[in-house]
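User: Run a structure prediction on this.
Assistant: Running it now.
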Amino acid sequence: MISILQSLTQTWRNLWFRELGDGSLLINDVAVRIRAGLLLVIPLYMGYTLFDIVFGPHWIVTGNFIKDTYELDIDDRILYHVEAVRRTYDYTVQSLVLLYALFEMLAGMFRFTSRLSPTIFIATLLARRQKVVWKPLIPKRFAWTIGASLIITCLIFFNPDTFAAWVNTITASELLPTTENYMSRWIPVTLVWVCLGFMWMETVLGFCVGCQLHAFLVWIGLIKHECEACNNLSWD
C-alpha cells in the first residue's frame, strides 16, 4: 500500500516531464500519445452531435393528427398534414465538454497546470512501465494551441448569441447578430473531423501534425525558437 502511494505521489510530482529541475522542457511522448487516445472520445462525441444536427430530423411530430392530403411530392410520395414543431437544440452538455477539452489543451502547456489535468496523470501512470521517449514541449504547445483554436471555434458555433453579445459590447456596435447563428454548420463539422484525424494520427501513428508544422515554421525561419527535434528533422 505504501509503495503504491509512493508511486502515485512520484507520478503526480514529475508527471510526464523528464525532471522538475531540468531547464529544457522534455516530456514523455508515450504518455502524450496515451493522453491523446483518452481525449479522442471528445471529438467522437462532438462529431456525433454535429452529424445529428446537420443530417438529423429538423421537425418533431407532436400529437396524433395525421391527415392525408391526397397529393404527391416530386418523388411520388404521399403528402400528409401533421402536427409538428421545429426541433430545437440545447448545447449545454456539448459546451461543457468543449470547455473541459479547452482546459486540457491549455493545462498541458505548463508544468504547474499539468498537475491539474486528470488525463495527464492517468496517461503518465499508464506509461510508467513502457520505454520513455523524450520529446521537446515547445512543439507540443504549438500543436495544442491549434487544438485550442479549433475548440474555441466550436464553442462559438454552440454559443453564437453569447459570443456575439461579447463582441458587440466590446465594439459598441451590432457587429454580429444575436438572434441567429452566423456560423455555417459545415465549419465545426469540418474542424471536428480535422481534430479527430490529428488526434488519431497522434495516438495510433505517433505523428504530431502540429509538431511537424512547428518544425517547418522554424525551418523556414518564421519562428525563431529552436529545439532539438526541429533542427534534426529531415525534409527529404
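The chain has one domain: 2-57+90-231.
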